[in-house]
Design brief:
Blueprint: E1 6-8, H1 11-23, E2 28-33, H2 39-51, E3 54-59, H3 79-88, E4 93-95, H4 99-102, H5 122-125, H6 129-144, E5 148-152, H7 156-168, E6 174-178, H8 198-203, H9 206-219, H10 224-237, E7 241-249, E8 264-272, E9 275-282
Parallel strand pairs: 1-4, 2-3, 2-5, 3-4, 5-6
Antiparallel strand pairs: 7-8, 8-9
Helix pairs in contact: 6-7, 9-10
The structure holds adenosine monophosphate.
Adenosine monophosphate (AMP) binds near residues 181 and 188.
C-alpha cells in the first residue's frame, strides 16, 4: 500500500521525525495503543487526526502493566494488519519501540498515582496495573511531546489516572477521552474479545445491557444501592464472576450516595471463563 506513514523503533529516529514536524510548525496528537487494533483504536486515530495536524500512534505491549499471572505472552499481536489499518487512516507516524528501547538495562523509575488510581476499582484487582500504565504513558508523552493525547473511555479509570498524572507532572499535553466503540450488540470492542468462545461471545453483551438497565433505573429514581444489587445478580446469573459493579463520581471516581451528587459513571468488571471484561457508561450521557 503506498503511504507516507513512517514507522520508527528507536528514540533517536522518533526524535528526528518529531523534530521535523515541529520545525514545520505542526501540531501533534498521540494515540497510545498495545496493537491488535480494532475500530475502537481507529476512532482514537480519527480523533487524533481531527485535533492536530500530525497523528502519531504508539504500539507497545507494555510488560510493566501485566502481572506475572496475566496474559502478556499471549496478548494478541497483529503487526501487519495494524500497520495496514493505520496506513489506511493516514496515520503520520507509528512509534513501536522494543521493550529494551523503552526499559533499557538499569531502568529504575516508577510513577505512582493516588487519587483515581486508588479508589478500589481496577486497582483492587490489578494492583500492579496503574503504576505500569502511568510510567509508560509518562514516557510516551515525554518521548513524543504531543499537544494532545487521546485515550478511550472504555478504560475509564485509566483515562482519569492519566489525566491526573499529566496534570500533576505539568506535562503540557491535553488529555482527551474518546467514547467507547461497540459491536452492534453493545459489547465494548477490546483486543481481548478474541479470547471469547462463541458461547461466551453470545453472553458477553450482558455487561453493557446491565449497565444500561441500572442507569435507566437510577434515572427513574431507584436508589443506587438497589439498582446495583439487581445488576450484580443479573451478571452472576448470566455466568460471569463479577469483580465489581459500581456507581462512582465521574471525575474523582469516589463512591456516590445519590444521583444528585453526580455526574455519575457506572463501571463494571467481570470474568467470563478465562477472559476478564470491563465496561462503563455515563448515567447522564447514554
Ligand atoms: P489498548 O490497546 O487496549 O491498551 O488500548 C489503547 C487505547 O485504545 C486506550 O486508550 C483504550 O482505552 C482505547 N480503546 C480500547 N478499546 C476501545 C474501544 N472499544 N473504544 C474506544 N477506545 C478504546
Amino acid at each position: 500500500m503506498p503511504t507516507d506513514m513512517q514507522v520508527v523503533k528507536t528514540i533517536a529516529a522518533l526524535r528526528d521525525c518529531i523534530g521535523k514536524f515541529r520545525a514545520a510548525g505542526q501540531t501533534l496528537a498521540l494515540a497510545p495503543t498495545m496493537g491488535a487494533l480494532h475500530e475502537g483504536h481507529l476512532s482514537l486515530v480519527r480523533t487524533a487526526k481531527e485535533k492536530a495536524e500530525r497523528a502519531i500512534v504508539s504500539i507497545f505491549v507494555n510488560p510493566a502493566q501485566f502481572a506475572p499471572t496475566e496474559d502478556f505472552s499471549t496478548y494478541p499481536r497483529t503487526w501487519d494488519a495494524d500497520i495496514a489499518a493505520l496506513a489506511k487512516e493516514k496515520t503520520d507516524l507509528v512509534w513501536a519501540p522494543s521493550a529494551a528501547e523503552m526499559y533499557p538495562e538499569g531502568f529504575a523509575t516508577k510513577i505512582s498515582v493516588a487519587g483515581p488510581a486508588s479508589v478500589g476499582l481496577e486497582d483492587a484487582f490489578r494492583p500492579h496495573f496503574f503504576g505500569g500504565v502511568a510510567t509508560v504513558v509518562a514516557k510516551l508523552l515525554l518521548q513524543t511531546l504531543p499537544d494532545i493525547a487521546v485515550f478511550g473511555e472504555k478504560d475509564y479509570q485509566q483515562l482519569r489516572v492519566v489525566t491526573q498524572m499529566a496534570r500533576d507532572l505539568d506535562i503540557p499535553t491535553r488529555i482527551i477521552g474518546v467514547p467507547t466503540a461497540r459491536e452492534t450488540d453493545g459489547l465494548a470492542m477490546s483486543s481481548r474479545n478474541v479470547y471469547l468462545s462463541s458461547e461466551e461471545r453470545r453472553v458477553a453483551p450482558t455487561l453493557f445491557r446491565v449497565l444500561m438497565d441500572c442507569a435507566a433505573k437510577m434515572r427513574g429514581g431507584k436508589p443506587i444501592a438497589d439498582s446495583l444489587q439487581g445488576g450484580r445478580e443479573s451478571i452472576a446469573a448470566a455466568g460471569f464472576k463479577l469483580d465489581y459493579l459500581e456507581a462512582r463520581h465521574a471525575e474523582t471516581l469516589q463512591p456516590i450516595a445519590s444521583v444528585k451528587d453526580g455526574p455519575v459513571r457506572l463501571l463494571v468488571a467481570a470474568k467470563l471463563g478465562a477472559t476478564r471484561l470491563i465496561d462503563n457508561i455515563g448515567l447522564e450521557t447514554e
